[in-house]
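Internal tracking record. Fields below are filled automatically when a chain is submitted to the structure queue. Please do not edit lines marked as system-generated. If the sequence contains nonstandard residues, flag them in the REMARKS field before resubmitting.
Queue: standard
Priority: normal
Entity type: single polypeptide chain
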Amino acid sequence: MTTVTVWADVRCPWCWMGHRQLGAAVRRLGADRGVTVIRRSYLLEPTGPDGPAPTVREAALTSWGMDRAGWEAMRERVAAAARRDGLAIDMDGVRNVDSRPVHRLLKLAEARGADPDLAWDLAFSALLERHEDVADPAVLRRLGAAFGLDPAEADGLSDSDGFAEQVGADHRAAAEHGVRSVPAFVHGDRVLSGRRGAGELAAFLSGEGVVR
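SYSTEM-GENERATED OUTPUT FOLLOWS
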């Protein structure tokens, strides 16, 4: 049995690509390998952005201090890499949201036995592809239904702090494992971070390849 722990934030486009590539790596290794994937929440902004969510582009050109040329280069780099994974990501329209609510919804889905691969994929798609505000209770309700959750339960989560401690604990545990950027894949005492292909991830899970 092989266990890999993945830290990711739904806000991170590279994490969606990593999610897809890890799935391909697990399939490459085959069912006989018995790979167990443990998904952990990572928060790019642990306390969440304040106020109404601007687009990532707006945030980059104002509070992040990027210039237009730098933003365009990053935007195209993300879009090109995503296309290679069959994903459509246009960072211009992605909302710079507080990701804690959707991470709490993913924890609820996990607790209710939802398919974690599907749940994370749908959450990534909602924010990065469809440019939805995944901190909005109405959006979370629709996502929860897509995960197979009772809509009333998703509504109740939006009105509470349910699973907030679990999400916070995941984020704190990242530092304990030496995770400084996402996506991050931890297998035993080895950490692999950043954009990685399926072959490299398969080698990592087999005890080969680079560390970090």
